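Here is a typical protein record:
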Amino acid sequence: MTAPFPTATITGYPRIGPRREQKKALESYWAGRIDAAEYAQALHTLRIDTYHRLRELGLTEDYAIPVSYSHYDHLLDTALSVGLIPSETTGTDFDLDEYFALARGTAQRSPLEMTKWFDTNYHYLVPELEDSTNFKAHPQHLLSLVSEARAAGHLVRPVLVGPVTLLTLAKTAPGTTASPLDRLEELTAVYLDVISILAAAGVDWVQLDEPALVTDDPGFTDEQLAEAAGRAYATLSGAGTHPKIFVTAPYGSLRSGLSTLATSGVDALGVDISAATRAHAPTYLDRVAAEVPEPTHLVAGIVDGRTVWAADLRESLDALTGLGRKSLSVSTSTSLLHVPYTVANESALPVDVASWLSFAEEKVTEVEALATALSSGPEARAAAFNRSDRARRTRAESSRVHNAEVAARTAAVAGDSGFRTDYATRRRAQSVLEVPSLPTTTIGSFPQTAEVRRARADHRASRIDDAAYEQAMKAEIDRVVTLQEDLGLDIIVHGEPERNDMVQYFAENLDGFATTDNGWVQSYGSRCTRPPILFGDVSRPAPITVEWSSYAATRTQRLVKGMLTGPVTILAWSFVRDDVPLAESADQIALALSDEVADLEAADIGIIQVDEPALRELLPLREADRQAYLDWSVRSFRLVTSRVAPGTQIHTHLCYSEFGEIIEAINALDADVTSIEAARSRMEVLDDIADFDFVRGIGPGVYDIHSPRVPSVPELTELIDAALAKVPAERLWINPDCGLKTRSYSEVRASLANLVAARDEVRARKAPTVAV
């Protein structure tokens, strides 16, 4: 007999481990410190411990726990499971070395492209779809995870990215004639093979995630995506033996897809009805109530999987009750992949701020409390409801949240566009910098050695004093400056040894933010960040970066570039307030950073980079919401630099930006030089630049820093030549794709030496005498 759908569930869970156990195991395996068997045992222990903990937190029903585990990336896992990426793997697991070669590359091959997962800071690997792609079921990895959990006493729910989302996120290889959705019928047949094999293994429920249906995809209309999903799920639901199918639509509200999925025959439909989604789509709750027929089990994703603020359980319970349904379960709006494990691990957070928060474990408790309250009333979970009430009350009453001086300063620039002066005037003024042709620079950070990390940790723990810490940081700056000079780089950076993270470092030095000790969130693979928590109005009590950039300038005769993180990226990579508009927080951060820019300029730092790698990341998923976002995000960047003199050269940097989608906004930033990630896509973004009247400096990255491989001189020369085919030499900069923090010095030294050699070769052939 098939198990009923659980009344309380989640759609995904963090997989890195409460103490980053997965990260440590991954990096130990890659470094050869442990073998495949030791790695497998470490991850087995982590998974089973996770299942046990989720059961303790209240997910006790069969299939309440999803198998949301991945060695590196869940989209890669699904692509391999259905043969979108060819694999001859057999047995009980993927071939790890082949898997990691796809994810990270090797000396002989480049990795798959990587880009942002919807409007989050998670990165997924992009599979390529060709006409010759032969879809084929490879469910061994899923089967092994199900079997492992069952042996430990857990009936878990396998999770796959749904077929429509998989196809729309895949990259079409050059020469491919078929549209991705033209392949839907044959791919759906393979999904049916996969889930039928799972059914034969005793699996009662399978989860398919379809976030593509809540977006306005540039390649497909909402109606086309909905129609495709309707066809796919009618096929899967109407087939013979298969598990029951639970389809989720996270990250926003469905439009045409709501009624289509609800009537497609799927057994359960998960919708995102979090407060944030309802604020953007005020009628969505009513539409869900009206358009999802009672035979379809509704899974209400009302606990927000992307915010860290404690849920308003009473308002949530009212919303759930208002749906008027019998067949109803409570869940998270998205996977909890996007939040840390638990507030209980945070001893250094201010006590009042900590009481306002819910991380993954606390959110599971909120889901269970709401599910219980639906049947037994809130008094059945009085402790959870009381905590929710107290969090909202004390946060609203706190004197730490609002600052009248900040509010007045922000209001005073309400009509300021941030315009400096025209680019032609700036270019003439910046000629005094004497930047050479095809100038080489890096994006900012250099490798963070064990010694640097130890010095920061010792200083934080008061094991060394301020003087010893300063000496350690300056010694590392000396090393980085000397290395850059020896390699022949033109524009020097100080390497950022004092920065634990490009956002956290600024949050630690700005009022209005709190930071965590163990609030780790996966960005990609083994890369984890600790997003700060923006809880109040933002101001800068003192200079942040000036001392370090100024010191670097005393150690070299070359130009030194000051390095700042921009307001949009600080917001995108933080957990933000839900009590004021995001645009207001952006202006507050921009004004604080403008003070930093003024101080750098006063210290004779003539080049200042304001990084905005997350500009594309926050772009709303629906077209109607995008222009308003782009307007305030561009304006906030310009506020940072609006006071600088024409002779100060302003740079910016963008990662995974899908440049063409926001090229007008990037142009409107009005930076003198823009560097962009381009190596993995083999300079594809340059087509967008060529098609647009982009007249300022541009630095398409030629060295992919997300892979440990060292690019050869011919490879780098080819990329520079490809860039020169689209960008005039007098406007082209040569740089890596991103910061070098995550790489080793051996990799960086060899790669940058090759980059400079490639530059020299091309410079001798093609370059003018002076760049912008």
